[in-house]
Write a structure and sequence with these properties.
Alpha/beta knot; Trp Operon Repressor, Chain A; 5-stranded parallel beta sheet; 3-stranded mixed beta sheet; 30% helix; binds adenine
């Protein structure tokens, strides 16, 4: 999969893509991630990419031209263009599973007060990572790339994400490792029993209990 990220702040991604699993996925050739500064595409004589909003109001608005030209230079028939915005539909694990099948993602990170509405005309999908407003789309882009990359074949074992939280609308079950007793807290007996049917039942019950407690909305879905 190829992922092009359009951002005014490519340095923000340092570290996130050069460590751990994403780094390994890049090295294995499972994903190619390119950071593209769309300021390089502005036709403004002073290199501007934003301007004041028509109708008045606070802050600056990203202009359509640099983003249009940047997307046009990258887009092919295989591309899916994603705009990150708090006004988008809410990003979920099931969207990550859909997006992992795409060949090419172009991800646009907004910044400042917002962007010219006409930018939406070149996008296939508008996504929000949650009901809060960040300073820009860079952190949401990292969230997307991380959550999609770990699902690509051969990046982590598929067993590792079969039991992920949100699969089947249930949160993950609790895990324990050595020692058996830590600060007086014991590992549940069933996990030491070697009885895999019982262990599976216990884990499923725990998934239901934790989901009821922390995310009852998921059970309604
Ligand atoms: N840009 C600012 N806040 C955002 C959010 N919650 N999701 C996606 N993009 C954003």
């Amino acid at each position: 999969m190829k992922i092009d990220i359009l951002t005014l702040f490519p340095n923000m991604f340092d570290g996130v893509f050069t460590e751990s699993i994403i780094k390994r996925a890049c090295e294995l050739g499972k994903v190619e991630i390119n950071l593209i500064n769309f300021r390089d595409f502005t036709k403004d004589p002073h290199n501007k990419v934003d301007d004041t909003p028509y109708g008045g109001g606070a802050g600056m608005v990203l202009m359509a031209q640099p983003i249009f030209d940047c997307v046009k230079s990258l887009k092919t028939d295989d591309s899916k263009v994603i705009l990150l915005t708090p006004s988008g539909i809410k990003y979920k694990q099931e969207i990550a599973y859909d997006l992992k099948n795409e060949k090419h993602l172009i991800i646009i990170c907004g910044h400042y007060e917002g962007f010219d509405e006409r930018i939406k005309s070149i996008c296939d999908l508008e996504l929000s990572i949650g009901d809060y407003v960040l300073t820009g789309g860079e952190i949401p882009a990292m969230v997307l790339v991380d959550s999609i990359t770990r699902l690509l074949d051969g990046v982590i074992t598929s067993e590792s994400h079969i039991n992920d939280s949100f699969n089947n609308n249930l949160l993950d079950y609790p895990s324990y490792t050595k020692p058996r007793v830590y600060e007086g807290m014991e590992v549940p007996e069933v996990l030491l029993s070697g009885n895999h049917k019982k262990i599976d039942e216990y884990r499923h019950q725990e998934q239901i209990r934790i989901t009821k407690e922390n995310r009852p909305d998921l059970l309604d879905e």
